[in-house]
Fold:
Amino acid sequence: MEDIKVKERFNWPVTILLLLGLFTVLFPLYMTIVIAFKQPSEMTNNVVGLLSFPKSWSFDNFREAMRVTDFWRSLFNSFLITAVTMVISIVIHSLMGYAVARNMNTNRFYRFSYYYIVSGMFVPFAILMMPLVKQTAQLHIDNVFGVIVLYVVFYMPMNVLLYAGYLKNIPIALEEAAHVDGASTWTTYWKIIFPLMWPMHATVAVLTALGTWNDVMTPLVIMSGSGINTLPLAQLNFQTQFGTNYNLAFASYLLALLPMLIFYLVAQKQIINGVINGAVK
Amino acid sequence: MKSQNERKRTFLLIAIPILLLFFGFNTLPLLRGFIYSFTNFRGYGSYDWVGWRNYIDLFTDTRVGNSYWFTFKLALVATILINILSLIMALALNSKIRFKSFLRGMYFIPNILGALVVGYIFSYIFTYILPALTHAASMLASKTWAWVAIVIVCAWQSIAMNTLIYISGLQTVPEDVYEAASLDGATGWNRFRYITFPLIMPFFTINMVLCMKNNLMVFDQIMALTKGGPAQSTESISYLIYNNGMNGGQFGFQSANAVIFFIVIVVISVLQLRFLNKREEQL
Structure:
């Protein structure tokens, strides 16, 4: 009895519409997969021929795409940039959030610092782009290191806002108790406050990682001509070499999408929670 | 007293290096961009001061004018479209459906994918799949329709994100509000219009502002789909600054363009926040 009642409450028409609607999400991915596995000779002019399953599921296109785009190097660079940016952001931005949150009510300097950094959110990359190209070249950091430094600065406004907001809900009494016991501010931070902020660290990690992993513009302008690629940048730089061999191109696109899709499969809940926390706070 | 000083010193030691870093790679380039905007710098070689020349030229340059027209048209249409569809999706995904978490998970996928690669995939759909089905020429090759293709690609990715924000908004509406409403006879559209929507107004504000800002800065999609063509009909402001400033020898001129673009973004964001906050207060 109980079972039937529960089932009756489902809104089936909406469920079915939503399942049908998945077509819009899945079609581009399906198309990418079948084209990536096909041979150029299988690319007919009619749609059915284009979208049918390949004759054989051979990985030749992927091997060739990996060779042409130097896949492992690009993957390594993307990984390095994303991971290092993420770690530095969590350390530096949480410290700044802490310094600001604990002082902005009593000290004008910190209140000013907070608004100064957060207002950086409105500065579009387009205006910083050209001077930054000059600046990174002059400092000889027009490389992976420079890109990481820029990301740490670009994500600072959002992350400091998030950390400072989160810290308002952590009572100051905890720190005062530690102080009475003779611990320094620095030790108190790492021993007590930093571990308390794990939910916010997860949010910052997800938002920063999604942004840096998929970004094209920053590495494009900073590292142009250096021969260093990130995974998305490689797709742009090898466009001409793919030519009209769409099978090779789509194999390469699929390879570029795969790491994030796998990550999403594994950490879906954390990613969705992170994005919600970031946007709603 | 000693511990008070220790605390102050630690905070300063944290804040000052970070502020210097932020100044060095955000404020300093901003100021330098502002200075370059008064020169005829080509990106290399020597340059002269030209005063307000670049700014005056901006307002008579048809290519710049077209890029502003295109970017605003795109941002406005995409933002409205994305928010309407996201609201509908959120209402559907928040109703009593089967496979709820599976469906929510699937519909979020577009948002985690890189915009450039998504652009390339859609470029193929617009160039080969759609023309084969409709027997019409590719949208991307048409001066009148290319911008619609870009709206579609932007929407495909952004709807995922905005839907998620609306869902978390809908979850803040307590169930008994609906029960009270149904006692008063409010159902369907009326319930949405007078009960649900006012309660999720703050989420509407966030979505409108974020979405508008992202769409105004559109770049990857242009790079992948049209590279500004056909006949410069889809050059976004960011793309024009990148293309002509970095490779076209207009470093100084495009710096002036970037300064105006910056002011435009700030003004629009502030106006939107003000207008939408006022509406929130009224409700």
Summary: Chain B has a mean pLDDT of 89. Chain B has two domains: 1-27, 53-282. Residues 53-282 of chain B form a domain with the MetI-like fold fold (CATH 1.10.3720.10).
